What we know:
This protein is of the alpha+beta class. The chain has a domain at 28-91. It is 34% helix and 27% strand. The protein contains two helices and four strands; from the N terminus they run ααββββ. The protein has helices at 4-25, 41-50; strands at 54-61, 64-70, 76-81, 88-91. A hairpin with a 2-residue loop joins β1 and β2. The longest helix has 22 residues, at 4-25. The protein is flat, with a radius of gyration of 20 Å. The chain starts with a helix and ends with a strand. It holds the Pfam family PepSY_2. Residues 11-87 form the PepSY domain. This is PepSY domain-containing protein. Keywords: Signal. Residues 1-25 form the signal peptide.
Amino acid sequence: xxxxxxxxKALALAAALGLAAPAFAGADRCQAGPETxxxxxxxxxxxxxxxxxxxxxxxxDDGCYEVKGVDKDGRYHEAYFHPLTLERKGWAH
Length: 93
């Protein structure tokens, strides 16, 4: 067996994975269904304000509400919230 064969296999695998990555890039993180069934954005804003957050921005991203703001302890966060439950689904990067 040629010593180049394992390198070629690794290169082919890396190329295949690189081509597959864009297919997952736009995945629906929260899987919340159509926006017509979502809780109003104002409800999330009120919930976070009651918890002491100062919001800088709120938008829809990957099927979630993405929030950027400062919590009651002064720490900056970028977080995803599920639009049906308003529970935090993870931190944005």
